[in-house]
Amino acid sequence: MAWGTILRLALVNLRRHPLRSLLTALGFIIAIGSGITMIGLVEGANSSIQGEIAALGTHIMVVVPGSGTLKGQHLGLGSLTTLTAEDAEAIRHECPSVAYATPWVRAAVQAVHANRNWSTAAIGVNDEFVAIRNWALERGRNLTPHEVRSEAKVCLLGKRVAEKLFGATDPLDRIVRVGRIPLHVVGVLAERGQTSVGDDQDDRIAVPFPLVQKRMLGITHVHMIMVSAWSDELLPQAKAEIAELLRRRHRLDPGEEDDFFLNSQEDLADMASTTLGIIQMLLGAIASVSLLVGGINVMNIMLVAVTERTREIGIRMAVGARRRDILAQFLAEAVVLAGLGGAIGLAGGIGLIVLVNRWLTGWQVVISGPAVLGAIGFSAAVGIAFGLYPAWKASRLEPIDALRYE
């Protein structure tokens, strides 16, 4: 019997019981739909995170203080106060692979202009911050080295802060009061938007770091040091140079644990990909279990169909149908059920991904070709695996016994 005829008969037989066929395929619809949706959302999240990291530049590193201890308890990264502005200056001038470096301190502040105020963050940096972050200025100019050294009362406003304090008015050359410190606005940073973890990059004020460090926080250390290598290829060499320099400056003995931690954007990208990859594997495993449940449902329904159509099988075999024709017929019905369910679930899952990304997350829509092919292929394979036994049972019926079946 030709395969075209077998498929046509399979569709005819499934249409005889539309509700039962739909309920049988529902397991595949839900499994494939939910699986492709979750995998697609993970792919979209990964693409968004990798895009944000790439926008920052993979040759960027941050140096953070190491972990301290208190009464035998480790306090975690950043608990030490060993990094200084002088460390950043030394990194900038003594590490050949380093292009830029800036100290970085952060303080929560209330910014005020006229009758408007806004709760934001003041970040203390030097004039190389915008070069490290590859951050364009929408208007005005950057901080100058002299302003940083002299602790000049100037600032760069993030886009959101500028809108909240000035509205449609040009903020250049205006005064913003942060605490008791009046700051002269010399520039406005271009809009960057939120990161994937919800951090609003535009909700901050960039100030010469000595002002934040000494006047706002009253500390002598810095929270971290941001560094940019000359290129991605020089990143490992820059890491080694910085580590050697800081160990020497902090007088650490050979074998003694570092009191700082180096982390690069490349490390963050790899970490994000690994984490999301594990999540994707777990979601795929859950979808596979759901497909297996759907396969068991197909097998049960096909066994019922074999019982209901025993006399039909006997008649077909009596008029010349071969056992392999009966086997192919019932196997085709199982595969069609699984394939149609998988196709409907796939279409629904893709539609849900588009809706979620467009209306909720704003991520780029990412639909993996291998995931789509894998979903359809695995769905059909499950249909074959679980439809094989009912089809084999139907093909092994004796024509006389089948014709006598009531």
TrEMBL record:
<dbReference type="GO" id="GO:0005524">
    <property type="term" value="F:ATP binding"/>
</dbReference>
<keyword id="KW-0472">Membrane</keyword>
<dbReference type="GO" id="GO:0005886">
    <property type="term" value="C:plasma membrane"/>
</dbReference>
<protein>
    <submittedName>
        <fullName>Macrolide export ATP-binding/permease protein MacB</fullName>
    </submittedName>
</protein>
<dbReference type="GO" id="GO:0022857">
    <property type="term" value="F:transmembrane transporter activity"/>
</dbReference>
<keyword id="KW-1003">Cell membrane</keyword>
<dbReference type="InterPro" id="IPR003838">
    <property type="entry name" value="ABC3_permease_C"/>
</dbReference>
<dbReference type="InterPro" id="IPR050250">
    <property type="entry name" value="Macrolide_Exporter_MacB"/>
</dbReference>
<feature type="transmembrane region" description="Helical">
    <location>
        <begin position="327"/>
        <end position="355"/>
    </location>
</feature>
<dbReference type="Pfam" id="PF02687">
    <property type="entry name" value="FtsX"/>
</dbReference>
<dbReference type="InterPro" id="IPR025857">
    <property type="entry name" value="MacB_PCD"/>
</dbReference>
<keyword id="KW-0547">Nucleotide-binding</keyword>
<dbReference type="Pfam" id="PF12704">
    <property type="entry name" value="MacB_PCD"/>
</dbReference>
<feature type="transmembrane region" description="Helical">
    <location>
        <begin position="21"/>
        <end position="42"/>
    </location>
</feature>
<feature type="transmembrane region" description="Helical">
    <location>
        <begin position="367"/>
        <end position="389"/>
    </location>
</feature>
<keyword id="KW-0067">ATP-binding</keyword>
<comment type="similarity">
    <text>Belongs to the ABC-4 integral membrane protein family.</text>
</comment>
<feature type="transmembrane region" description="Helical">
    <location>
        <begin position="281"/>
        <end position="306"/>
    </location>
</feature>
<feature type="domain" description="ABC3 transporter permease C-terminal">
    <location>
        <begin position="285"/>
        <end position="399"/>
    </location>
</feature>
<keyword id="KW-0812">Transmembrane</keyword>
<feature type="domain" description="MacB-like periplasmic core">
    <location>
        <begin position="21"/>
        <end position="244"/>
    </location>
</feature>
<keyword id="KW-1133">Transmembrane helix</keyword>
